[in-house]
Structures are given as structure tokens and as C-alpha cells.
Design a protein that fits this description.
single chain; alpha/beta; TIM Barrel; eight-stranded parallel beta sheet; 9 helices; 34% helix; globular
């Protein structure tokens, strides 16, 4: 199966009873996009807008708030290139306003947009426009650093350089986030975690969130090497956790780039299988960062290529069944609320 969207209802073929359905949750990482109008063989599931988000967030778990994360949508088509990403913030503000018409459903209460941090000091001007257009929702930026020399590994849509986190201009751009009390979401691959540790050490006042476990790769030259990569990943992540300004998002590990090939199966993954395959990543991260610096995330609809929304959150709840109430409150709600000032 080359494309899950070619099979009607594929993602719904695994259904589970909802665990702990009353627990309040903030989902701090999702995207929205229009998708192609009418591509051959692909139904509405390729699109992800408010009704699609609500279909997932209303599938059984008690999702109260969400944070939208940059994915290069609805940039301005005219004007200076530096300011074009502000169009994405306007796009999401419009959807958040639409969501206010039904307060019984999950509300988009934070936006992470994009600004080219290689602008250095002048990034501040673009950030200020994001803040204005964000109407109280803009919380910071993500400038993805995902880069690999092998052409089989797709580099991030922001077209980073090999060591972008260590570039002087990039770090001067990030300093503007500190001045404006904004946060920095990251997205890179496992072999770049060391660079992020250096960056976090050099900018101790910058609040950083480490997305998707640092992107352990499992494709191209990394295919079938998860066990070997895991050992180095553990060491690198432990060093990163020593930086008190870095937080961790727990999720985003079911993407095709991670190499599990779940998107090619006849059935999506179950919560038990996700737990048995990924639990070591989650437990290690929670142990070294602590629950007050960790937050569960859906990374939808990207992870929807492998697992449905309600099954994913069931997996998170199974992983934390032995945790006390205060620890669960941090992982599912409080850390995200405080980090993103929701």
C-alpha cells in the first residue's frame, strides 16, 4: 500500500475503547492544510482543516486546547520574502476564530509560526508583525533544522544548512525571540541533537522545545539501524536534558521517516504495539527531563499515516498507568499550558 489515503476508512480499521476519557488534555502539536483539491484516488482525508481536527479531537479523549505548529501553509504570495510566512499566522487565526463558534470542542489557543532566523537581528521586525497579526495567539517560531547528506532523507521545508543551529546569524535571530518573550520549537534529526545542545547552552534564556524525540531516522542509510541509533540517541538526549531551558515533546515517532513502515500495512498500528515498540523512547525522555519539562503531542495529521488519534492517546495513557495524578497532569496538560502560556 503506497498511500494510506487510497483506502477509504483505512485509519478507522483499528478501534479501541477510550482509556480515562475524562482526563483533560492539551495537544501542543498539530498542523492544518488544505491539500490538493481533487487528486486521483485521494479523498478528503488528505486535507486537514478545522472539521478534520475536530473529528480527531472529538473521537473520545477530552482534548481542551491545541497549539498549531508551522508547516509552510498559506504564505503571502506577494511582498518581501521575509514577511511571507506571516500569512500562515493569519490563516490559523481565522480558523481559531471559527472554532470559537463551538466552545464545546477543542480550541486552538497557540500558534507557532515561522521566521527565517538567518535574518539575524532583523528577524525582530518580522516577529513583531506575527505578534500583531496573531491577535494574542502567536507564541513563537519553528525554524526546522532537519538536514542529512543522503538524498534519500528529505531535508526540512525551511531548507536548512548542515549546521544551522551553530550559525552566528541563526543564533542572533533566536536572541530576538528572547527579547520578545517567544519560544523556539525545533525539528531536526537524531544526528543533530548535539548541535542543539550547544545552541541551548549558548542561549540559556531561550525557551526551547525538542520536538519528536529529535527525529531518530530509519530510512535511507539508517534503515534497519534503530537499535544502534537508539544507544547514541540516549546519550545525546541525556546531555541535552542537562540544559534547563529545553523541554521535550513526546510524540511524532510514527512518521515514515522513522522507518517503522506502519504506513504500508493493511491495518494501522494499535496502542499496544506502539507502546511495545516506542516505550523506551518515552520512558527515557521522561526520566531525564522530568514530567515538568515533558508534554505529549499528537503530531497530527502526519502521524495519522500510521495510527488514529484516539489510539495514539490511548497509548500515551497506557505508558503512564503507573504514574501518580500530579505526574499525569503535567504530561497531558500542565507542562504545555505553562510552556506556551495558554
Amino acid at each position: 500500500m503506497s498511500n494510506i489515503h487510497e483506502i477509504e476508512g483505512w485509519i478507522d480499521r483499528v478501534q479501541e475503547e477510550i482509556i480515562d476519557p475524562e482526563r483533560e488534555i492539551i495537544d501542543p502539536h498539530h498542523h492544518l492544510w488544505h491539500g490538493p483539491e481533487d487528486p486521483p484516488g485521494i479523498k478528503d482525508t488528505y486535507r486537514y482543516l478545522l472539521e478534520d481536527l475536530w473529528r480527531d479531537t472529538s473521537s473520545g479523549h477530552n482534548i481542551k486546547k491545541t497549539v498549531y505548529i508551522d508547516c509552510g501553509q498559506e504564505y503571502y504570495q506577494e511582498g518581501p520574502d521575509a514577511f511571507k510566512p506571516v500569512g500562515e499566522t493569519e490563516f490559523v487565526v481565522g480558523i481559531a476564530k471559527e472554532a470559537k463558534k463551538d466552545l464545546s470542542k477543542a480550541q486552538i489557543e497557540g500558534i507557532i509560526g515561522h521566521v527565517d532566523m538567518m535574518l539575524g537581528d532583523s528577524a525582530k521586525e518580522v516577529l513583531e508583525v506575527h505578534i500583531e497579526k496573531g491577535e494574542g495567539l502567536f507564541r513563537g517560531i519553528r525554524h526546522s533544522g532537519g538536514w542529512d547528506a543522503d538524498e534519500r532523507v528529505k531535508n526540512a521545508h525551511s531548507e536548512p544548512t548542515e549546521s544551522i543551529y551553530l550559525e552566528d546569524a541563526f543564533q542572533r535571530g533566536l536572541e530576538q525571540l528572547v527579547k520578545l518573550d517567544l519560544v523556539f520549537d525545533t525539528w531536526h534529526y537524531h544526528n543533530q541533537i548535539k548541535d542543539l545542545t550547544i545552541l541551548a547552552s549558548e542561549l540559556p534564556d531561550l525557551r526551547i522545545v525538542h520536538d519528536h524525540f529529535g527525529g531518530p531516522l530509519g530510512i535511507g542509510p539508517y534503515e534497519g539501524k534503530q537499535e544502534a541509533i537508539f544507544g547514541q540517541w540516549k546519550e545525546d538526549t541525556a546531555r541535552l536534558a542537562e540544559c534547563p531551558n529545553v523541554y521535550a515533546k513526546l510524540g511524532g515517532l510514527a512518521m515514515p521517516v522513522n522507518g517503522w513502515k506502519w504506513h504500508k500495512r493493511d491495518l494501522p498500528v494499535s496502542s499496544d504495539e506502539l507502546v511495545s515498540t516506542h516505550e523506551e523512547y518515552y520512558k527515557h525522555t521522561i526520566e531525564i527531563f522530568g514530567v515538568d519539562r515533558c508534554m505529549f503531542e499528537s503530531n497530527f495529521p502526519v502521524d495519522k499515516q500510521s495510527i488514529s488519534y484516539h489510539v495514539l492517546w490511548n497509548a500515551f495513557k497506557k505508558m503512564t498507568k503507573s504514574f501518580n495524578e500530579d505526574e499525569k497532569e503535567s504530561l497531558f496538560y500542565r507542562t504545555a499550558k505553562e510552556f506556551y502560556s495558554l
